[in-house]
Structure formats: structure tokens, C-alpha cells
Design goal:
The protein has 382 residues and is an alpha/beta fold. The chain is 43% helix and 13% strand. It has one domain: Divalent-metal-dependent TIM barrel enzymes (TIM Barrel).
Length: 382
């Protein structure tokens, strides 16, 4: 790993690790116990900060600060929150993101449901998540406030009817109510919708980054809410799943002021090595070194993004515990390498080449930047 004075002078970067990465196996068509020491009865949420601090942090550059991402209520809840917060504080790994795991409880639309009982229960579930974030977990916040991410996993449907219009209206009502509740609790969290097109349900609202931005825009207009903390948790892999361009998704976020949390991920799209991409299920590879991510990193740099980069990823079905940890380390280092290459990208020369329609030269510039990123990665992983 590169170290020394130049390393210490680098801008601080915030990378968060997800609790759900550390599991014994996916099960189903692949082994469910490939990592036996990570079974739920042995490796609990309060054990993860120690694991991150001991096995991941020492292999990362000094400028990288690490955070923790959690689902309520299967990963953190009223019963274990004190122990989880104690562990985060002991190992200096603050809360980067909390999300209500409503998809585990409400399969008929959640806060968008046409069933009034489910809609109320789902709304209360989200409020309890807010209460926990401002309650026992409040002391685990760091110098960058956490994101409160709303994954759309429970806002889905499989029957196409005109009633979807009413579901969408319910969704807006539920989100506005949650935003008001959070504002009354403290108004410090960043509420971010994480869009996904499918999986969990054949169709989900909202499916794309653009539709999430539009949803918050309409809610702010209709309910008189402050837009500054209403954002998008764009997961790069989700854009890839539907064949969309995560680069343009990011540009839309920057333009709309909704770039408040990001999940770095990959489905193998634009990689040339991994099997995945549009039309595939959510594979959850980590970040890769490629021109696509060098471009994304430059956009984030130019936008002066100084919030959390979450690594929402899964070990491969054949990874043991050591290999699974290695995947996380490589994901963080891959993004750091791409960012370092992006910092030195000659953007002026690139734009001049594009203006002159010399796209072959522009391609050479980006290929050289990608090669530089790989060299950075090789130095960092050594």
C-alpha cells in the first residue's frame, strides 16, 4: 500500500461498508453455508465494526475513512442498537447509512399499498427507523451526517392496472409524511430514494434515477418540503441492470442537487471480464477499474462530492471468509485508483479533441487514464 507524506496529504474520502455483505452464503441455487463463521448465530451486527477495523482498514490508504451501513430491523433494532453503537464508537466506524428494511415485512406495496392496514404499518416502520437513528444510534454519527435511504423494494407490483396511479399517490403521501417526521426529529439526515427497476417485484416505483428526482420534485412542490436534504442513492449496478447510463444518471443528480449518497457497484457491464449487465439480476460485484469509473470519479470530483461512497456488494457464491474480505478491499481500492487517475485527467485536451471531432484521440486519452488507474490499483493493493 502506498504510504508516506503524500498519502497523508490526500483529501479525506468516505467509504462505507454494508452489514449485509457479511453473510454465510446466499443459498437457493448456490451454497448457503460457504462461510460458516459468518452465520447469523455467530457473526452479529455488533461484531462487524471490529472485523472491518482489523481486516479491512489496515489495507486501505490513510485518507480513507470507513463507515457502516445497516438495515432496520433485521440488522439493527431496539434490542441490539446499544451494542452496535458501542462497537462503532470503539472502532471509530460511524453510521453512514440506515435504511428501513420494509421489503422484509411488506410485500404488497408498503407505504404505496392499496391495503390501508399495510400502508399504516409500513409508515410506522419507517418512523421507528428514524427514532432509532436519532435515539441509541445518534452517538454513532460521525463528521458526515448519515443518509436515510429508502430502497423501493416494497413499492412494487406485478399486476398492471390503472390502480397504479393510486399507489403512486399513496407513495407521495407516505414519503412526505416520513420527511416531515424526520424534520421534527432533528432534520439532520439526508433522505435518499434508491431506485431499482425490478427484482423483488417485476416492476417497482420509481425505477430510475430520473424518476426518483422527479418524485422528490413533485413531493416538494405539492407538500411544501425543503428539497435540500431530499436526494437519490444511485446504485451504479441498478442503472446497469436496466441498460441505462450511470454516468448520465450522476450528471442528472448533480444538476438537480440530489447527489447525497452513492452505492458503488457493478454488474459486470463495461468490464469485459465479468458476466452480467443489462437484463441480468442484481449480481452485486464491487467497483471495477475501468474507463467508466474513471469518468464517474471525475464527475464526483468536479461536483465536490464529500459524502459517503457505499460498497453495496456481495461475496461471490464460492468465496470463503478471506476471499470475501478481499472483495471489499479491492472494491474500495478500485474506486480510489480511478479517482487518482481522474485527478490527473487532462480534461482541457480531452474537450479540445471532442470539439475538433477527433474522437479517436479522445479515446486514447481515456484509455491512458484507465491504464493509469490500473497502475494506481497495483500500487495500492501491493
Amino acid at each position: 500500500m502506498v504510504s508516506g507524506q503524500n498519502e497523508r496529504m490526500r483529501t479525506k474520502r468516505y467509504h462505507s461498508i454494508c452489514r449485509w455483505t457479511f453473510n454465510s452464503g446466499k443459498g437457493g441455487f448456490v451454497p448457503g453455508n460457504i462461510r460458516p463463521s459468518w452465520s447469523s448465530d455467530q457473526l452479529k451486527s455488533e461484531h462487524i465494526p471490529s472485523l472491518i477495523a482489523k481486516e479491512i482498514r489496515p489495507r486501505l490508504p490513510e485518507n480513507v475513512a470507513l463507515g457502516f451501513e445497516l438495515h432496520y430491523d433485521n440488522e439493527v433494532n431496539e434490542g441490539n442498537a446499544q451494542a452496535v453503537a458501542d462497537a462503532m464508537g470503539e472502532h471509530d466506524i460511524p453510521l453512514a447509512m440506515i435504511t428501513p428494511g420494509a421489503h422484509g415485512h411488506f410485500g404488497y406495496g408498503g407505504i404505496a399499498s392499496l391495503d390501508p392496514e399495510e400502508r399504516k404499518r409500513a409508515g410506522d416502520f419507517g418512523k421507528r427507523t428514524v427514532d432509532l437513528a436519532y435515539g441509541e444510534l445518534r452517538r454513532a454519527w460521525g463528521d458526515v451526517s448519515p443518509a436515510f435511504v429508502l430502497w423501493n423494494g416494497s413499492w412494487g407490483y406485478d399486476l398492471v392496472t390503472p390502480a397504479i396511479r393510486e399507489m403512486y399517490a399513496n407513495l407521495k403521501d407516505g414519503l412526505a409524511e416520513l420527511a416531515r417526521y424526520e424534520a421534527q426529529a432533528g432534520g439532520l439526515l439526508n433522505l435518499c430514494i434508491e431506485p431499482k427497476p425490478n427484482e423483488g417485484h417485476p416492476a417497482m416505483m420509481p425505477p430510475t434515477t430520473a424518476s426518483a428526482i422527479l418524485l422528490w420534485t413533485r413531493i416538494a412542490e405539492q407538500y411544501g418540503l425543503d428539497r435540500s436534504r431530499l436526494g437519490v442513492n444511485k446504485e451504479i449496478g441498478h442503472s446497469e441492470m436496466i441498460g441505462l447510463d450511470a454516468v448520465f444518471d450522476t450528471i442528472e443528480e448533480v444538476d438537480a442537487g440530489t447527489l447525497l449518497h452513492t452505492h458503488l457497484n457493478s454488474q459486470g457491464y463495461n468490464d469485459g471480464l465479468l458476466a452480467g449487465g443489462p437484463g441480468k439480476y442484481d449480481i452485486d460485484f464491487g467497483t471495477r477499474v475501468n474507463g467508466f469509473n474513471v469518468t464517474l470519479a471525475r464527475i464526483f470530483l468536479d461536483a465536490k462530492y464529500e459524502r459517503w461512497f457505499g460498497h453495496d456488494m456481495q461475496p461471490r457464491p464460492y468465496d470463503d471468509e478471506r476471499q470475501a474480505v478481499e472483495r471489499v478491499v479491492r472494491s474500495v481500492l478500485s474506486w480510489e485508483a480511478c479517482e487518482r487517475a481522474a485527478e490527473t485527467l487532462d480534461l482541457r485536451t480531452l474537450e479540445l479533441a471532442m470539439a475538433a471531432r477527433d474522437t479517436a484521440k479522445a479515446e486514447d486519452i481515456m484509455r491512458a487514464a484507465t491504464s493509469t488507474a490500473q497502475k494506481h490499483f497495483n500500487d495500492l493493493i501491493a
